[in-house]
């Protein structure tokens, strides 16, 4: 009996095994999560309202894939923030099937693709990219409370799991894109600010209003149209609602912050912005007005106007508030006034608009200072196209200038119509107290080399990018391509060097590569002869870097070398029309008219100054057809040497060509800076800068540029 039972059990076991092997195998997918995941904890936690929205938004699969790639941080609003405190209109908008994308963006705005616990919270304001590709700001207020945007973290580290963490926050975070979607989709009828009333009664004899009698709903009008419309409807203070404000109206506080950031970004209104930042009560009042439906017109005085105010005027109690109050005009914005504004200033047919001729518009804009041109980009696409045109920048009425760096300060020296020396603030973040060891211009930027890296800087746009690379010096920057537009900043590359090697840095990927300076092919004239750089100052033209170089120190052959970023090699581009016969000869390369080269040569013995230019537009891919022509020659008696003696003999002059004038900057034997203006084979003027600039400044030529500074990939992703 026992034997038969054992045999039956064995038979059943074999049968079950064969059936199991015959069934298809159920392998876990890569997106599968375990029971200890932060997503499972969210669905089982007390954040039931948020968990319900995640399920309705069909985001579980997306979040599982995100958790499979990296840790996440979830900012979970309290249940009452979603259930009772959320505007019912906004909540119904989110739950409509057609607004699924807005709901998904809203929820992913609460999730960071990285783990940030309370001990890791940044002490200073820092912004992080969310899964919705928007950014949130993590801050710590004066009472040491943690905040994400304007929401306080009420339950830090509430749920901790191996693949993520959940922080409880006091209210819902609403990204600007969702807020704009809600504003565009709202019904005009539901938020109408016109109070429906019965038509007023008019005495037919006096045409004066009488007390209106009750009128049944749907009854025909009792008065003629003229009499009924003449008084006009009464307008109620009913602002257009929008999520995020204290009364579920527009978030005035955020808009005031954006306004202050705009003042700082455009430049020239820093004093006004400082007052708004320091007077928190005034900024709060402005935000409250915007939240309640007011449109604020700010007549912002620029820094030059604010500088005329005396200390006594600003030191009186309440004086700054009164000054700003006089410059703010609040105008209440009802639904009817908004509708009329759209009706009056809505889209027009571009074909019927009168437009200024292109040449006249260029001429007008060319007379606007470059600082002001930065703000004009947003006027229209037509103006933006003009401002991006390299030809327009080259023909702009604002001329080149010299940048001078001393041991403690940086100066900008403009020449036209008279010489003006201004101190240039070094507004590079985290480096305000440092002065660069070297400062040179390249590709419409200033290159600031420091001890542990370098910064690429556009002082006119107040933009900079810091690249850390100790023991190397940044030699040049250019874009990798034949054309450059404002949205191609990721195409930029830089080249670095020290005594032993060269390296290439790619902005798009943040990568570094080693390069061999002498890897290019040599022709018969250079065979067996090593190339040497005459100066480490590079010149950028159409996406390539060029240096003056020479081969053979005993019998030097001077040439123009090009570094090809696509092939990552240095080779001879063309030969120069002149060279050096003395160690104090001047030999400087610059770009001429935006598409050609110019070379300045001064003979130390005769003091003769020559300017050579390329005859035609330069094709950077082929230098075989380059033809040099003599453009200017100056033989001026008793003209000084442009290259000082040792130990400063490596300091070459800076120059630019202004029509038929040659403008140069150099230091004399005592280290004092001079500006020389030459024309028609004579010295037009010379100006000594000793009373302003310290001895032995380094200097370069720079043209104020509208080209934005490129950013590394990681830094670009953090920009809002």
Written description of the protein model:
Residues 350-403 form the F-box domain. Residues 1-22 form the signal peptide. Residues 34-173, 256-411 form the FAS1 domain. With 720 residues, this protein is of the alpha+beta class. Among the domains are: 38-185, FAS1 domain; 401-717, 6 Propeller (Neuraminidase), CATH 2.120.10. Helix content is 25%, strand content 28%. It is built from 21 helices and 36 strands. The strands form nine sheets. Strands 2-1-7-6-5-4-3 form a seven-stranded mixed sheet.
Set down the secondary structure blueprint.
Blueprint: H1 2-22, H2 38-44, H3 48-56, H4 60-69, E1 72-77, H5 79-83, H6 88-95, H7 100-108, E2 111-112, E3 126-129, E4 135-140, E5 146-148, E6 151-161, E7 164-169, H8 176-185, E8 201-202, E9 209-210, H9 225-229, H10 252-266, H11 270-278, H12 280-291, E10 294-298, H13 303-306, H14 311-315, H15 319-325, E11 328-332, H16 335-345, H17 358-365, H18 370-373, H19 381-388, H20 390-394, E12 401-405, E13 410-414, E14 420-423, E15 438-442, E16 445-450, E17 453-458, E18 463-468, E19 473-479, E20 492-497, E21 502-506, E22 511-515, E23 531-533, E24 539-541, E25 544-551, E26 557-564, E27 569-575, E28 586-592, E29 596-602, E30 609-614, E31 628-634, E32 654-658, E33 661-667, E34 673-679, E35 682-688, E36 698-702, H21 713-717
Class based on secondary structure composition and strand pairing? alpha+beta
Describe the sheet with the most strands: 7 strands, mixed
Strand order of the largest sheet: 2-1-7-6-5-4-3
CATH topology value of one domain: Neuraminidase
Low-confidence stretches: 6-31, 186-200, 221-249, 335-353, 486-490, 716-720
Spatial extent as radius of gyration: 35 Å
CATH superfamily of one domain: TolB, C-terminal domain
Quickly give the CATH architecture of one domain. Answer: 6 Propeller
CATH class of one domain equals Mainly Beta
- Assess the beta-strand content as a share of residues: 25-35%
């Amino acid at each position: 009996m026992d034997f038969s039972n054992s045999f039956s059990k064995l038979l059943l076991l074999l049968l079950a095994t064969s059936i199991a092997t015959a069934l298809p195998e159920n392998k876990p997918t890569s997106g599968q999560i375990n029971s200890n995941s932060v997503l499972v904890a969210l669905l089982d936690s007390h954040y039931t309202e948020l968990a319900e929205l995640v399920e309705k938004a069909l985001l579980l699969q997306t979040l599982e894939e995100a958790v499979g790639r990296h840790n996440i941080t979830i900012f979970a609003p309290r249940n009452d923030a979603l259930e009772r405190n959320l505007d019912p209109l906004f909540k119904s908008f989110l739950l409509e099937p057609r607004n699924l994308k807005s709901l998904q963006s809203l929820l992913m705005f609460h999730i960071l693709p990285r783990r940030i616990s309370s001990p890791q919270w940044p002490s200073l304001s820092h912004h992080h990219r969310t899964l919705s590709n928007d950014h949130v700001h993590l801050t710590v207020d004066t009472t040491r409370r943690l905040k994400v945007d304007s929401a306080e973290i009420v339950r830090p580290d509430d749920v901790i799991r191996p693949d993520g963490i959940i922080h409880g926050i006091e209210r819902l975070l609403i990204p600007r894109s969702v807020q704009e979607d809600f504003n565009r989709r709202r019904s005009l009828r539901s938020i109408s600010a016109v109070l429906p009333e019965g038509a007023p009664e008019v005495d037919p004899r006096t045409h004066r209003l009488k007390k209106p009698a009750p009128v049944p709903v749907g009854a025909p009008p009792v008065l003629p149209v003229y009499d009924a419309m003449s008084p006009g409807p009464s307008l109620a203070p009913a602002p257009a609602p929008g999520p995020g404000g204290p009364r579920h109206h527009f978030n005035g506080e955020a808009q005031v912050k954006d306004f202050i950031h705009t003042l700082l970004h455009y430049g020239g209104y820093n004093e006004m912005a400082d007052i708004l930042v320091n007077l928190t009560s005034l900024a709060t009042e402005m935000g409250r007005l915007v939240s309640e439906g007011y449109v604020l017109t700010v007549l912002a005085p620029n820094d030059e106007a604010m500088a005329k105010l005396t200390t006594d005027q600003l030191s009186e109690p309440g004086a700054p508030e009164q000054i700003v109050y006089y410059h703010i005009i609040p105008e209440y914005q009802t639904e009817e006034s908004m509708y009329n504004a759209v009706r009056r200033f809505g889209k027009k047919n571009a074909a019927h608009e009168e437009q200024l001729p292109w040449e006249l518009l260029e001429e007008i804009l060319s007379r606007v200072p470059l600082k002001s041109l930065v703000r004009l980009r947003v006027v229209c696409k037509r103006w933006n196209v003009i401002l991006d045109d390299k030809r327009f920048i080259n023909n702009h009425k604002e001329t080149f200038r010299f940048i001078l760096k001393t041991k403690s300060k940086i100066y900008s020296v403009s020449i036209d119509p008279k010489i003006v020396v201004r101190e240039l603030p070094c507004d590079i973040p985290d480096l305000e107290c440092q002065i660069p060891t070297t400062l040179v211009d390249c590709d419409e930027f200033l290159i600031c080399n420091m001890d542990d890296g370098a910064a690429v800087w556009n002082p006119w746009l107040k933009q900079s990018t810091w690249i850390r690379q100790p023991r190397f010096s940044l030699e040049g920057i250019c874009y990798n391509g034949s054309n450059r537009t404002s949205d191609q900043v990721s195409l930029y590359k830089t080249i670095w060097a020290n005594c032993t090697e060269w390296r290439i840095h790619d902005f798009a990927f943040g990568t570094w590569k080693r390069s061999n300076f002498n890897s290019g092919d040599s022709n018969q004239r250079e065979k067996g002869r090593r190339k040497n750089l005459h100066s480490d100052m590079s010149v950028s033209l159409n996406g390539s870097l060029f240096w003056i170089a020479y081969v053979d120190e005993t019998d030097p052959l001077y040439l123009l070398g090009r570094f090809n970023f696509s092939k990552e090699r240095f080779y001879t581009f063309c030969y120069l029309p002149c060279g050096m016969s003395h160690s104090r000869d001047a030999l400087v390369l610059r770009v001429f008219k935006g598409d050609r080269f110019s070379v300045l040569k001064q003979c130390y013995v005769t003091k003769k100054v020559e300017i050579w230019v390329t005859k035609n537009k330069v094709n950077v891919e082929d230098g075989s057809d380059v033809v040099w022509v003599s453009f200017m020659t100056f033989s001026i008696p008793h003209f000084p040497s442009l290259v000082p003696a040792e130990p400063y003999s490596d300091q070459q002059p800076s120059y630019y060509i202004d029509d038929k004038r040659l403008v140069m900057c150099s230091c004399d034997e005592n280290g004092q800076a001079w500006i020389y203006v030459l024309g028609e084979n004579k010295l037009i003027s010379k100006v000594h800068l000793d009373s302003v600039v310290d001895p032995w400044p380094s200097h370069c030529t720079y043209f104020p540029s509208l080209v934005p500074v490129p950013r590394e990939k990681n830094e670009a992703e953090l920009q809002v």
